[in-house]
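Folding problem:
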Amino acid sequence: MIRVLLADDEAMIRAGVRAILGAGEDIEVVAEAGDGREAVALAQAHRPDVALLDIRMPGLDGLAAGEEIVRTLPGTAVAMLTTFSEDAYVARALSGGATGFLLKSGDPHELIAGVRAVAGGAAFLSPKVARHVIDGYGAQRMGRNADARARTAALTPREREVLGLVGEGLSNPEIAARLHLVEGTVKAYVSAVLDRLGVKNRVQAAIVAYEAGLVRL
């Protein structure tokens, strides 16, 4: 089972998200919090696989709570759950160690897929969030896209294929199944891609994949 901590200051939102996640037979909400400080305390007490955090909460917001959970609980993946997709929120969440960014207004199946992806060590950006981030580059977008295409051109066809699947939020086992490879081979491909692109993690690699046009949004 994927054990989830759910944090949102609105009880009705928590109830709705809990019901959606309950449709996934492999997901269990083990704790709920109404603010960031409570989320950190419950995460430390329950050590969930995923902390699903609203951004705007009283006291300690979800961004700060996520940073603290990443710092103190390396075994817990952090995903942000919000109605907001402003660039500043996305950038801070990802730089703080979050590996998922999901919209409350998104498809319920997308929410479940996102939780499964981050629990499996993959990155997951809601397609709407990814598009917003890319569009938000404004005048810099064409240059960044050209740079991403140039960087990915140095990859082998198989490495570009793996990068595209990382951009879709697939975990290593899912990529292995999709490409009919053993998981160890996929892990080696992912490591090589991160190294050749000069990025630190799968989230940054996913953004390069979006910018290079390797992911259909």
About this structure: The two ends are 29 Å apart (CA to CA). The mean pLDDT is 85.
